[in-house]
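Anyone have tokens for Flavodoxin family protein? Sequence:
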Amino acid sequence: MKVLLINGSCNKSGCTFTALSEAEKALNAEGIETELIQIGNKAIRDCIGCNACRKNADLKCIFTDDIVNEIIEKAKDSDGFIFGSPVYYAHPSGRLLSLMDRLFYAGGGAFAYKPAAAIVSARRAGTTASIDAITKHFTINKMPVISSNYWNMVHGNCPEEVMQDKEGLQIMRVLGQNMAWILKCIEAGKKAGIEKPETEDKIWTNFIR
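Reply: yep, here.
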């Protein structure tokens, strides 16, 4: 079993990385393989709603000049996900949201029915709004959402301050443990012959006639 952790910060070893690393250690202690991806500081395109990805049978975005398709490929072989972001103006990183919009629009099939969690880091506020924005990608895509013993956040203006947030670090560890437990439950269910639900064809209702 493998969990893909995605660092949506431009800062490779900053506060978001520190939080993700704490969750990663808890996953590894439970025997779960992990891979932590840094999305870097290069530009990531927005989704332009061209629908060209709908013509691709291999779950790919038509744009190939950034990290989106690489992550979709990794998602196909992953069993769970943790998306992390710093808080900017009470919302997640715009680059992470651009990434997620395209990941889930072009490659949603690689994520569906797999558990996921959002974690955020902030100096002070905007955390719950940011968690909510990230989590909406999961709940529109049939994904179980993993929680901890508080909202999945850490506080600090630098990694050293995050390391002083003892409650925040515990939240990350409990999150990792809960993710591992759910993954093991899903695996046990598969072995017992329990398959994922059969999906109905999507019904599209427009309120303007």
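Strands lie at 2-7, 33-38, 80-88, 91-92, 116-122, 153-155.
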